[in-house]
Amino acid sequence: MNKIRIRNFGPIREGLEENGGWIELKKLTILTGNQGSGKSTVAKLASTLAWIEKRMVKGVMKPDWLNTHNRFVKHCSYHNLSGYFKKDTEIGFEGNAYRFTFKDGRFESRPVSTNAYLLPKIMYVPAERNFLAAVEQAQQAKYLPSPLVTFQDEYRRALKSVKGTLGLPITGAALTVANGVPYIKGEDYEIRLSQASSGFQSTVPMFLVSHDLANTISKGADPSMREFSSAEMKKLRKDIERILLNDSLAEEVKQESLRVLSSKIKIDCFVNVVEEPEQNLYPTSQRGMLNALLNHVNMTDGNRLIITTHSPYVIHYLTLAIKAKQIIAKAGQDSGITDAVNELVPLDSAIDASDCAIYELDDNGTIAALERYQGLPSDENELNNHLAVFNTLFSQLLDLEDRCR
Amino acid sequence: MPVNFFQPGCRHTTEIARFGLCDDPQPAKSPAYLDEIDPDKWIAEVSNPGNRAVEFHAVDHCPGIDPRRTDGSAAQRCDGILTWGRSIVFVELKDRARGFGGGQGQLLETIRYFNADQGLGGYDHVRAHVANRQRPAAAIGGAQTIQTFRNETAAILGGKGVDLCLDRNIQVS
Predict the structure, then answer these.
(1) Which residues contact B9 (CB under 8 A, 6 or more apart)?
(2) What is the number of domains present in chain B?
(3) B6 vs A199, B28, B115, B123, CA distance in Å?
(4) Each residue's pLDDT tens digit in chain A (405 positions)?
């Protein structure tokens, strides 16, 4: 399992106050907190470090390359994090192939056993994704943030993969694509996505890219070639030729060499980092959207989903997905019960409690892991508490009204 | 000595399609009661579309209902019990509550002593409701609260636990 530790970086000060400060990046990791509390900082840093690890495994970045010339800090500029470094910034990352530390301004990497490493497709889904849906020909816009440009490339590729209609997880609508233009199709309407509601505009790019990558990887198709630069492709060809044309190698050695080479490039799993998946969505649509993302993360072993959210519904609907998994395990072969569970929570979206972690970030730069009761997220989570705050505030107003009599 | 939770003096009956359960605010020490007239007074609202014969039995502050723990101290009591057919609903009526905390203790102890003294074996449907007088009120998620209540009542009853509803609307079906 991957872990990340962050101290004194951007809005994060002490970071996680337990577990030695290590935030466990499980199959599903949810980050909640106020604006500016550091949710996205954790998500972006986790994405960056996983990406660096992948580059090192692929051999396109030397393990010591980031150790000098402030390269690690510069690397963080992709996510606009370069300005978050302080004198006492400490960052740790434990992946399955590399361990990274950043302390006293120095970055260090150490290899660990790579046996458990699965090469991921890492997709960061930015909060401003609706721009790509609201503005047709958004690719012609200049000065877009780098993560949005990367996401846009993947979105455009995914649009090309849509054949016929693709059901969307919200409102029963479907997506069609004609001449590269996405349309939303309902029972009695069909409109361009650029003219659809904001909920569709934020959901379609996120859902489509997630759907496309999760399905592509689960079917054994390899999206890795998409991310190869021409230089990398040239190097790959040379590496293959060097193996195949080397007459001194036995056939078995050649096959093993090709297998090792393949393991460095073939995508095994999908790491989906999604900012605020609930954006502009009605609660029932939030449920459909979350279930879709859970379905995607369940498709292939090693997939991971990191979500930042302000929505109590996301926590509530995750609770249902965890409970559903518990009941499925208890039901065993009783298809009557599993069918009934499926009516409430799609079986493909159910998730094991031990595969989930929720972290709450506060305004003081500390992070706390949400407690659980029998695997279920505690009712005492901050998003739930803020719903209850309404009741308290309203009571206080009633108390004041009483004093008027 | 077994407690009779259905004291004749605290029993109310109705067949009306919509009525409320009321409890006078502190410091009043009077039992909860059923009201068919004034929705503004209702803490819990009961829908009875089939006009079934429903009974409401006040529990807390009802003379003659005084369950005692083994150490002799008074057990907590919920505000009342609704029954119809083979269904029974334990009800806690909360006054201007800050959330739903606190009502479960009264419900748990009442269920414990009711089961011990009168038994729940004659009922097919058993559930508990925490109703909040305050309106408007934001509904908050209560999975942990519901799960805990289910577990604790299962331990008390030695079998299936009781469903806890964090809802002021009670449906007679």
Answers:
(1) B62, B63, B64
(2) 1
(3) 54, 21, 13, 15
(4) 899 999 999 999 999 999 999 999 999 999 999 999 999 999 999 999 999 999 999 888 998 899 888 899 999 999 999 999 999 999 999 999 999 999 999 999 999 976 789 999 999 999 999 999 999 888 888 889 999 999 999 999 999 999 999 999 999 999 999 999 999 999 999 999 999 999 999 999 999 999 999 999 999 876 665 666 666 667 777 877 787 778 887 877 777 776 666 666 789 999 999 999 999 999 999 999 999 999 999 999 999 999 999 999 999 999 999 999 999 999 999 999 999 999 999 999 999 999 999 999 999 999 999 999 999 999 889 998 888 888 778 767 877 887 886
Report angle CA A349, A167, A180 to the nearest 5 degrees.
130
Q: What are the E-state strand segments in A10-140?
A: 15-16, 22-25, 28-33, 85-94, 98-103, 106-111, 120-125
Percent helix, percent strand, percent coil in chain A, to nearest 5: 50, 25, 30
Domain that holds residue B113: 8-171
Shortest CB distance from A394 goes to which of B134, B139, B148? B134
Please report residues of B whose CB lies closer than 8 A to that of A394.
Answer: 134, 136-137
A177 phi/psi in degrees, rounded to 5: -130, 125
Whether A214 and A297 have beta carbons less than 8 Å apart is answered as yes
In the structure encoding, which two tokens stand for residue A359, read together?
Answer: 């972290």
What ipTM was assigned to the predicted interfaces of this complex?
0.71
Domain-embedded: residue B76: yes
Hey, which residues does A3 pair with through a beta bridge?
A24, A94
Strands of A119-180, DSSP E: 120-125, 165-167, 174-178
Contact map slice: B 81-110 vs A, CB within 8 A: 96-99
- Residue B98 maps to a domain: yes
Distance from CA of B46 to the nearest CA of A (A): 22
A365 shares contact with chain B (CB less than 8 Å): no
**Cα–Cα distance between A8 and B77 in angstroms, integer?**
51
| Any B CB within 8 A of A398 CB | yes
**Alpha carbon separation from A284 to A199, A288, A309, B54 (Å, rounded):** 12, 6, 16, 35
